[in-house]
Automatic annotation (TrEMBL), chains A, B:
This is Hydroxymethylglutaryl-CoA lyase. CDD domains: DRE_TIM_HMGL. Gene3D superfamilies: Aldolase class I. Keywords: Lyase, Metal-binding. Residues 2-270 form the Pyruvate carboxyltransferase domain. Pfam families: HMGL-like. Belongs to the HMG-CoA lyase family. It comes from Cytobacillus oceanisediminis. One of its GO terms (molecular function) is lyase activity.
Length: 294, 294
């Protein structure tokens, strides 16, 4: 059994050129829940001026159906994001930093050390409020400006985040640089460092066609939670260098072929992917939509 | 170290709408050789009326540069193909059948048993002529009309082909139905049946996005030869909804990231992929062309 964390409504739609209204996001999320997905990164509490497609976080959360066993996550990058999140009933805060100074300075004008210092307080306060807190570590498999990110640096950020109150860690391949051997090594090192019970997730982009090969390598190394995006949303050709996440239905198809339970109904997920293509009014990256279930 | 069998000039160009002249095929193959590729499926001795893009097999072979250590293969599906091949200096005959009656009847109007009977004679005569003979078994991972193809059936065809004189076997996922667990199981079963020294190759299509994940699974199971197509060109013209082969430069990028030698120069292969896009006058499927080498 693996767990899917569906990030299409957040990481996917954030990287599309067309802005989708809150009602459509809610319909998308409702459909995903109906197909069996139980962990959804639904919103982002990022500055609405910086990321307009995510400005409606509070509205989306208000409109979302409440269902037993379904968990909604929201991205938190700063104290101001935390303050917004704590006024909502979002279940999990996904607290994010990259692990490369060059990338982090360009992205949020802070070194990794500065970011981790500030975010540790955010994590503590979030955890104290009773919400779940997940730590998401970007550029964990390489940085487009620095190249390799030393594994020790990634591990150190994870330690600080877990000390502050994160109960799970997701390693993100922000710009699609991971390869299967590296995925295996990093995942095994994380289990060695934090124990086999660590709730470890992986977040891949299909930038260089390696998304599912990396998911496979992570699964073989013992990882059981994977981020993915319905229809491979997030690769709008007009967005600068955006390439979609691993595609949810393509990933489910792989796991079902391998005899691994995902808790989801693939034909129903596939229908939602096709519907999403009509919503976005452009061909999306998912392959199963074109080929059909084998 | 892995060996790439480049099938773009044959399996790729066969399924493109634009017909490419012999001189361009020769330029493509020459570029691939200059990038380090040593095994190239260059032509097909199929009926020119059925597959017009491949009608120039003899001309392409005459124009190709002769280089030490480079091997040119040609597809042979029948006795008439063999007769043409034997009049050329092609190095290897790639003798093909599918392993599913339904598929084979639609494709070449013969049951698998009938095809294997005829092709065994072709293989014997080809081997007796001094040329190398490789057996290629299509639908080895599933048939779009029948579903699963029993492993025993695939193994039986391989046995007959090797008895007749094939020195290597390639298992082909004609319509992109393979999954990594299945690849692992079939590859291991082949090594169990024929010994670890079996020259086993795998031929995947990226129909459902699993091309590189399946290559990875095959590599992990001990396979060291993989078919791929420059820029992701092509697919099987007889298979419903087939899409391109695994993309050569994307596969090289994966293996180099994993520290596995391919004997090729990736930047130079990538240049050829980009050139191929200008030749075909349409965007091709390769991902690395868009994202660049990490």
């Amino acid at each position: 059994m693996i767990e899917i964390c569906e990030v299409g409504p957040r990481d996917g739609l954030q990287n599309e050129c067309k802005i989708v209204p809150a009602e459509t996001k809610v319909e998308l999320i409702t459909r995903l829940i109906d197909s069996g997905i139980r962990n959804i990164e639904a919103v982002s509490f990022v500055n609405p001026k910086v990321v307009p497609p995510m400005a409606d976080a509070e509205e989306v959360l208000k409109l979302l159906p409440k269902r037993n066993g379904v968990r909604f996550g929201g991205l938190v990058l700063s104290r101001s994001g935390l303050e917004r999140a704590l006024k909502t009933d979002v279940d999990f805060l996904h607290v994010v930093t990259t692990t490369s100074d060059s990338f982090n300075l360009r992205n949020v004008k802070r070194t990794v050390e500065q970011a981790v210092g500030e975010l540790s307080l955010v994590i503590k306060e979030g955890a104290a409020s009773g919400k779940g807190v997940a730590g998401v570590l970007g550029t964990a498999f390489g940085c487009p400006f620095e190249g390799d990110v030393p594994f020790e640096n990634v591990l150190k950020v994870a330690e600080r985040f877990m000390e502050a109150g994160c109960t799970e860690i997701t390693l993100a391949d922000t710009t699609g640089m991971a390869n299967p051997i590296q995925v295996q090594k990093i995942a095994e090192s994380f289990f060695d460092a934090f124990g086999k019970d660590l709730s470890l997730g992986l977040h891949f982009h299909n930038t260089r066609g390696l998304g599912l090969a990396n998911v496979l390598a992570g699964y073989q190394a013992g990882v059981r939670r994977f981020d993915s995006s319905i229809a491979g949303l997030g690769g709008c050709p007009f967005a600068p260098k955006a390439v979609g996440n691993v595609c949810t239905e393509d990933m489910i198809n792989m796991f079902h072929g391998m005899g691994v339970n995902t808790g989801t109904d693939l034909p129903s997920v596939l229908e939602t992917a096709k519907w999403m293509e009509t919503v976005m009014e452009r061909p999306l990256d998912g392959m199963l939509m074109k080929a059909g279930i084998a």
